[in-house]
Write a structure and sequence with these properties.
The chain is mainly alpha-helical. It contains 4 helices and 2 strands, in the order H-H-E-H-E-H. It has one domain. Helix 1 crosses helix 2.
Length: 88
């Protein structure tokens, strides 16, 4: 991908495909046990954290119990929030 970001919606689609494949190969119970031992690491730009909250909920609903999320700056320092604070 040469440094291009993959949209979160596409990443969720990829995860759903992987989840279905694991379930098909291992069976539902063993797939869920395998997933429950996994750590999902996300690196999100600070401006995107608020936009991706719904996507993160969908990811968690698929049985991903451990999410480790990194983002750049404090949420109040995101460009979107700074613009809101600057508006009178």
């Amino acid at each position: 991908m040469d440094g291009q970001a993959i949209p979160m919606s596409q990443q969720l689609d990829h995860w759903r495909s992987i989840h279905q494949e694991l379930t098909r190969k291992l069976g539902s119970s063993k797939a869920q046990i395998h997933i429950s031992k996994s750590l999902f690491v996300l690196i999100i730009g600070s401006n995107d954290v608020l936009d991706y909250y719904g996507s993160l909920e969908k990811l968690h609903e698929t049985g991903t119990p451990r999410l480790l999320i990194f983002w750049g700056a404090q949420l109040g320092c995101t460009p979107e929030k700074r613009e809101e604070l600057d508006d009178p």
